[in-house]
DNA sequence: CGAGACATTGAGTAGGTTCAAAGACCGTGG
DNA sequence: CCACGGTCTTTGAACCTACTCAATGTCTCG
């Protein structure tokens, strides 16, 4: 590849999506093609990405931050149906409306692909479509895991499972070969209310469970939204 | 297409998968190719299809009956994470293990495609892969709807939602243009325990909710597993 | 007709919600 | 720099929904 291309791709080199997400399926040349139709967009915490039940005009990869997908019942009850971290994708690839509400939970950076050109690219690059299929299948598997949590786990197990899930996802990237026994630090960007909506609990219950885990020494809380997990193994046992 | 092909395809003509499932994406010629690698298999109610956490050797379309996907917690708590009706598909298309337990809930007939040859076919026929992707996206959407039910709905709403969901799915096929207000008959092949495991409730609670709906005249019960819904609209209101 | 599986109903309990109040954190402006 | 207001979190108390345990009823199939 010549120097010009290298320059053009600049930002992509350090992007999670390039290394383990959608773009992982692409050659440098294809990546360049994709980049030409893409534009980056930043969202502030709380900003709306998709309103739901509307035709969206782009499909996007999450480059940084956390995106929260929620569904709302007629009377305001909410359920978080997905948390997207890099290198996940937001939006529905093929035509249809996204049947949920997408919101930036933290500062978020998306790499947006307008629908028409993206689908063209999908049709032209089989590896890309294959990759998208696999990511969708993985998401379906996680959704099913979450159904078990929502339907059958106790409040304590739910909270432990969430912490564990986030640690696991975070570790996937800054993994420097350390073992499972190591204490871990976790930044939880969600507020208690959001955690509750994700776990199918009231926020008060979330609070109480966190307090209980602290008292048992399973977790520590250096600051409000930061946790230390001195013993991930114990947490896993509680999570079931 | 010549008469020989028509003969070969015989069974496929009347198959739900051909009309609205995977095979819908195929020409007659491609269908014939797919049929050559497929074999049908029947399962009795309760029979295991996949054990979970194992490499499966086929991917399959549900031609008739109901397949139940469940996950089990260490202490026996169960959660049904999917009900597959024709023309849904069972199994994981791309390589990985199926992380759940698949079981025939009724008499079931599958059309099984051995992994190797099926993936070859997927790669050769873009429309097929596209179709698989779309079905997977739809399944993900349903899973998320179910998360709302599990996390945020009351027992009453859960039971109403289940009945409504099954009616909707059943109607999709024998739809003769009738309106929504018409009374509907529904055969529920699941036992109370399974309904509970699907809704995240105990079977006693399922019973009580069904009884309550009967007393309110929202549903009738001609026989143990058959229901009449005189007023689907009212049920929808309850379901939320 | 009897046995076993499944469904229903009742009574008591517990886990989680709701309502309420107090405490901690954060950014803003005086 | 500190005081102030708003938002978020924590904790307590009362309540309620759904669970558990237990007994009875009903269907199905040999």
Q: What attributes characterize this protein structure?
A:
homodimer, 240 residues, alpha+beta, Jelly Rolls, Arc Repressor Mutant, subunit A, 4-stranded antiparallel beta sheet, 9 helices, 11 strands, globular, DNA-binding
Order of helices and strands of chain A: HHHEEEEEEEEHHHEHHEEH
Our count of helices of chain A gives 9
Shape of chain A: globular
Helix content of chain A: 40-55%
The third-level CATH topology of the largest domain in chain A is Jelly Rolls
Structural class designation of chain A: alpha+beta
Largest sheet of chain A: 4 strands, antiparallel
Q: Find the biggest chain interface.
A: A-B, 42 and 42 residues
Please state the average pLDDT score of chain A.
91
Q: Largest beta sheet of chain A: what is the strand line-up?
A: 1-8-3-6
How would you describe this structure to a colleague?
The structure is a homodimer of 240-residue chains. By secondary structure, chain A is an alpha+beta fold. Chain A folds into two domains: 38-144, Jelly Rolls (Sandwich); 153-239, Arc Repressor Mutant, subunit A (Orthogonal Bundle), CATH 1.10.10. Helices cover 44% and strands 22% of the residues of chain A. Chain A has nine helices and eleven strands. Chain A has helices at residues 3-9, 16-20, 28-37, 115-124, 126-152, 155-171, 192-199, 203-215, 232-239; strands spanning 39-43, 48-50, 58-64, 67-72, 78-84, 89-90, 101-104, 108-114, 184-187, 220-223, 226-229. A four-stranded antiparallel sheet of chain A has the order 1-8-3-6. Chain A has a four-stranded antiparallel sheet with strand order 2-7-4-5. In chain A, a hairpin with a 5-residue loop joins strand 4 and strand 5. In chain A, helix 6 crosses helix 9 (232-239) and helix 7 crosses helix 8. Chain A is globular. Chain A starts with a helix and ends with a helix. The model of chain A has no long low-confidence stretch (mean pLDDT 91). Chain A binds chain B through residues 69, 71, 73-75, 77-79, 81-82, 92-94, 96, 99-100, 123, 126, 129-130, 132-134, 136-137, 139-141, 143-148, 150-153, 197, 199-200, 240, and chain B through 69, 71, 73-75, 77-79, 81-82, 92-94, 96, 99-100, 123, 126, 129-130, 132-134, 136-137, 139-141, 143-148, 150-153, 197, 199-200, 240. The structure holds a DNA duplex (30 and 30 nucleotides).
């Amino acid at each position: 590849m010549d120097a010009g291309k290298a320059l053009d791709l600049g930002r992509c080199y350090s992007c999670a999506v390039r290394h383990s997400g959608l773009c992982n399926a692409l050659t440098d040349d294809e990546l360049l093609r994709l980049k030409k139709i893409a534009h980056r967009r930043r969202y502030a915490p709380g900003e709306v990405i998709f309103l739901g039940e509307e035709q969206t005009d782009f499909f996007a990869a999450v480059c940084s931050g956390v995106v929260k997908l929620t569904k709302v019942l007629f009377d305001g009850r909410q359920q978080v149906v997905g948390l997207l971290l890099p290198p996940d994708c937001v939006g529905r690839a093929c035509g249809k409306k996204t049947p949920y509400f997408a919101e930036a939970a933290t500062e978020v950076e998306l790499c947006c692909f307008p629908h028409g050109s993206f689908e063209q690219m999908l049709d032209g690059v089989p590896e890309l479509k294959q990759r998208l299929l696999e990511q969708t299948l993985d998401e379906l598997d996680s959704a099913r895991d979450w159904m078990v949590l929502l339907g059958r786990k106790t409040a304590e197990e739910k909270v432990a499972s969430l912490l564990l899930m986030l640690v696991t996802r975070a570790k996937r990237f800054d993994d420097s070969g350390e073992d499972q026994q190591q204490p871990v630090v976790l930044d939880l960007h969600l507020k208690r209310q959001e955690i509750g909506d994700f776990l199918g609990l009231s926020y008060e219950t979330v609070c109480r469970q966190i307090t209980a885990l602290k008292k048992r020494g399973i977790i520590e809380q250096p600051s409000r939204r930061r946790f230390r997990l001195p013993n991930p193994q114990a947490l896993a046992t509680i999570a079931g």
